[in-house]
Amino acid sequence: MELSAEELIITSTLTAIMIAAAAFDLRRYRIPNALTASGVLIMLGLNYLSGSFDGLTASLLGLACAFAAHFLLFAWGILGAGDVKLFCVVGAALGAGAMLTVWLFVALAGGVQAGWIIARAALARRRAGADEALLAGRKACYGVAIAAGTLGTLGWRALGHDYIRVF
Length: 167
What we know:
The protein is globular, with a radius of gyration of 17 Å. The longest helix is centred in the N-terminal third of the chain and has 43 residues, at about 35-75. The chain has one domain (about 5-160). It has helices spanning about 5-30, 35-75, 80-95, 100-130, 140-160. With about 170 residues, the protein is mainly α. It is built from five helices and no strands.
């Protein structure tokens, strides 16, 4: 599937934001507000420029969908605020219709990430002869899984597959 010039700009910009967010999250266990706020504004603007009011509406619906779906996870302490805002960037970029596909790819990436963390902890425990306390306090940089899942979604789309849709 060939991307239009507008889609290529949105995809390239989103890719750069995801890579930056993953790098920040790995290094500092946080995703800067400047990155997510500017990302949302850029995506709203790019979608407006590519589709005028319809593009802006789709972008705002994606943003609202991402926020609504993830705010409770933040309130329950499952996701960090930066993770929620990063999902909002993705929603603003791709629209609500892409979010199920994004969630599936992010869940897959998160599962791989969790397996990696568990395997590393088990290996360290075996080497050090430590107990289960070694696993306590392990943090997952979920921004990495969000970035990987988003990039997986973009790759899925670039291969010509449609987004998985419920509505």
